Amino acid sequence: MRITIFGTGYVGLVTGACFAEVGNDVVCVDVDGGKIDRLNRGDIPIYEPGLEGVVVRNREAGRLRFTTDTAAGVHHGQLQFIAVGTPPDEDGSADLRHVLTVAGSIAEHMTDYKVIVDKSTVPVGTADRVREAVDRGLAARGVTVDYAVVSNPEFLKEGAAVDDFMKPERVIIGSDDARARDLLHSLYSPFNRNHDRLISMDVRSAELTKYAANAMLATKISFMNELANIADRVGADIERVRIGIGSDPRIGYHFIYPGAGYGGSCFPKDVQALARTAHDVDYVPQLLQAVEEVNDRQKHYVFNRIREHFAGHLSGRCFAVWGLSFKPNTDDMREAPAGRLMESLWEAGASVRAFDPKAMAETRAIYGEREGLVLCDSPEAALEGADALVIMTEWNLFRSPDFEAMRERLAAPVIFDGRNLYDPDYLADLGYAYYAIGRPVQA
Ligand code: NAD
């Protein structure tokens, strides 16, 4: 099938590459010329496991092309995917500017039947707004062209995006148009061979499903963080509690890890946008508000622990920070708890020696050569002379370090672990002061 994807970010690039991988003819359009130049050189602008191979292979086979030429993109695909960013607006609602710009561009250039597919995460009612934008564009040209708008929200996880796309848990297709729905079913059939994963529904339910999924996951995290804070105060160990409750299949072990708060480009903005939608229809979303508030508080947890340990004297101190991306296996730093922590440390007059396996370039792009930040080549180098180690992302590389050797490099054997990676008793035996989340302190 001939497919056009607008937006070559985490979602658009993975979507385009994976559709090409199963034999489709894909053109990806982005307004960022630098990104398109890099992609045309076979240089992948983001880190996503397995993505480079898929992009390079399909680009070389001529099934995957990259351009800034919107008109050419519109002419190419019968299926026009919108996978552009939907960042939060000032009031927390999703900013649909990019989505509606693409809708306008499609209307400006289309000459035959198109299925316009919203893959970006967009509030309920956006398909109607896309339709209005397209109708306006067609009316301005004085032409009538048949088209359909479909909601097909994306559920891939950064860090496992290619796998998730190739073997999706579900594909949601929200459409009121039988022809468009059939086209989408054909498109996804290669990803649907093992058992039926396609779930068809009306457009509004599809739009809400994406927010419901992310809000549920964010709720699980905030719930566990709330419990961790209670565990701290009553002298319980949240890790024992986690294992205890996860054993109930109604609760399950997935996604109930306490930590330094959720980040990333999706959970924070999607919880906010869903709350905004609720307010817009005169409903007070108490639970969603609490999920967000608990998360904001949690992002200060590690810093507060550090401040307490050093009795408020942080000025002039140096901290090794392991893990900068918002989660492992990605270079994405959007809303990363590590960013908030470093900013708090700098405000308090401390400096940071930072290491991340994949997010160093992104960290440099965000913070540049600022004073108080040393970007290190290895986890060991980050420790050199630091007053403590702070762990903010649970990369596998950090799970079983050489604690004896680390003690030699650190100025003092102190670890603040925002991801509960280690055994507190073991570290206490080695002479470390060890602070985790919701676990009795070993100091
Ligand atoms: P991103 O910021 O990585 O990429 C968006 C891309 O769109 C950028 O390259 C930008 O230059 C491009 N763009 C903006 N306006 C454009 C236009 N008019 N024409 C063509 N390209 C344009 O964003 P992302 O993380 O890929 O997210 C995209 C959407 O998918 C968002 O709505 C997001 O909520 C949703 N989503 C993201 C994830 C994720 O894990 N990142 C998962 C599921 C859904």
From TrEMBL:
Active site residues according to the UniProt entry: 266 (nucleophile)
Domain of life: Bacteria
Cited Pfam families: UDPG_MGDP_dh (PF00984), UDPG_MGDP_dh_C (PF03720), UDPG_MGDP_dh_N (PF03721)
NCBIfam families: NDP-sugDHase
UniProt KW NAD keyword: yes
Keyword terms: NAD, Oxidoreductase
Class of the enzyme per the UniProt entry, highest EC level: oxidoreductase
Designated name of the protein: UDP-glucose 6-dehydrogenase
TM regions (residue ranges): none
GO biological process: polysaccharide biosynthetic process; UDP-glucuronate biosynthetic process
Binding residues annotated for NAD(+), in chain numbering: 30, 35, 86, 121, 158, 269, 334
Organism this protein belongs to: Spiribacter salinus M19-40
The EC number(s) this enzyme carries: 1.1.1.22
GO molecular function: NAD binding; UDP-glucose 6-dehydrogenase activity
Family of the protein in this entry: Belongs to the UDP-glucose/GDP-mannose dehydrogenase family.
Keyword Protein transport among UniProt keywords: no
Domain UDP-glucose/GDP-mannose dehydrogenase C-terminal: 320-424
Residues reported in the UniProt entry to bind substrate: 155-158, 210, 255-259, 263, 327
Lineage: Bacteria, Pseudomonadati, Pseudomonadota, Gammaproteobacteria, Chromatiales
Associated pathway: Nucleotide-sugar biosynthesis; UDP-alpha-D-glucuronate biosynthesis; UDP-alpha-D-glucuronate from UDP-alpha-D-glucose: step 1/1
Catalytic activity reported: UDP-alpha-D-glucose + 2 NAD(+) + H2O = UDP-alpha-D-glucuronate + 2 NADH + 3 H(+)
